[in-house]
Write a structure and sequence with these properties.
By secondary structure, this protein is of the alpha/beta class. It is built from 11 helices and 10 strands. It has 2 domains: 193 residues, Bordetella uptake gene, domain 1 (D-Maltodextrin-Binding Protein, domain 2); 117 residues, D-Maltodextrin-Binding Protein, domain 2 (3-Layer(aba) Sandwich), CATH 3.40.190.10. The strands form 2 sheets. Strands 1, 2, 3, 4, 7, 8, 9 and 10 form an 8-stranded mixed sheet that branches. Strands 5-6 form a two-stranded parallel sheet. Strand 1, helix 2 and strand 2 form a beta-alpha-beta unit. The structure holds aspartic acid.
Length: 325
């Protein structure tokens, strides 16, 4: 063995030893979970619940940082460029799978630049409107939108967000083009709707349940195939004359590419413990959803789901002909 080979082997051994030491010691400082939408919205709500429980499990602060904008791609891009050391994570939703088809110039690869940690929750969406919008149910809503398409404002969380996607599907299904108004997340979009500035929006039950039950917004339908038990008075879109209409939001937790496997293992274990936390389960139930089963809160399950969703949405988006730069 020559000097060069020995040196290379020595360096590799040092790198392996330091990765091991890092993983042993992990976490020894606060962890940041980037939410790629504004504070006060549904992704933020799920992230804060999970982060609080992970803080207990990991014995280190797990802090949520909101990096909203461009339908979630700004925050995801930030995490793609972060060090793979387990101290910067991303809690995203379905938008991570639609961004590659929607954005012509995406600065990151949702599969290649991330290490999946696990799925978090599947969350239904609801089609809601400001209280003053005249139609009282889906039967009245469809003709109303056709007759008033020039003045109806549809709010969403940016190109590629779930609310945008749901709106696109809705508009193409009923063949009505509405004016869309983007926000940094559906938290601020909801504030605008409560103020009567925007008319219509699709949003996760994690953001809408309280407002629906409190009579602050009108609710027309849920976007899942089956009704939502906590909002059982609402029909599905499919049962309201739009057969086949379905949008189910899912959340996943990711680390940047290159995060060492032992660190990922600790994070998956902490996520799984958080998803068994009775407090997390109870709070999500109030908000119309539940954590995923433990066997889906794994890197393999998230990796497979992400790929399946990319393949599912890419032809839909291509057919709709929508792009962002
Ligand atoms: N619900 C948002 C969306 O439409 C995102 C958010 O604010 O959590 O994608």
């Amino acid at each position: 063995m020559n000097y060069q080979t020995l040196r290379r082997l020595g360096l590799a051994a040092i790198a392996a030893a330091s990765t091991f030491a890092h993983a042993q010691d992990y976490p020894n400082k606060a962890i940041t979970v980037v939410v790629p939408f504004a504070a006060g919205g549904p992704t933020d709500t799920v992230a804060r619940l999970v982060a609080q429980s992970m803080t207990t499990n990991l014995k280190q602060q797990v802090i949520v940082e909101n990096v909203g904008g461009a339908g979630g791609t700004l925050g995801a891009g930030r995490v793609a460029r972060a060090a793979g050391d387990g101290y910067t994570l991303l809690l995203h939703h379905i938008g991570h799978s639609t961004a590659p088809s929607l954005y012509r110039k995406l600065a990151f690869d949702p599969i290649g630049d991330f290490e999946p940690i696990g799925l978090v929750a599947d969350v239904p969406m609801t089609l809601i409107a400001k209280q003053a919008l005249p139609p009282k149910d889906m039967k009245e809503l469809l003709p109303y939108l056709k007759a008033n398409k020039e003045k109806v404002l549809y709010a969403h969380a940016g190109v590629g967000s779930a609310s945008h996607l749901c709106g696109l599907l809705f508009m193409s299904t009923i063949q009505v083009d509405m004016t869309t108004v983007p926000f940094g997340g559906t938290g601020p979009a909801m504030t605008s709707m409560l103020g009567g500035e925007v008319d219509l929006m699709c949003d996760q039950t994690t953001n809408t349940t309280g407002q629906i039950k409190g009579g602050k917004v009108k609710a027309y339908a849920v976007t899942t195939k089956t009704p939502v038990p906590s909002l059982k008075e609402l029909p599905t879109m499919a049962d309201s004359g739009l057969p086949g209409f379905e949008v189910a939001v899912w959340h996943g937790l990711y680390a940047p590419k290159g995060t060492p496997k032992p660190v990922l293992d600790k994070l998956t274990a902490a996520l799984q413990t958080a998803l068994k936390d009775p407090n997390v389960i109870a709070r999500l139930a109030e908000l119309g959803t539940e954590p995923v089963a433990q066997n889906r809160a794994t890197p393999d399950a998230l990796r497979t789901h992400l790929k399946t969703e990319i393949d599912k949405w890419s032809p839909v988006i291509k057919k709709a002909g929508v792009y962002a730069d």
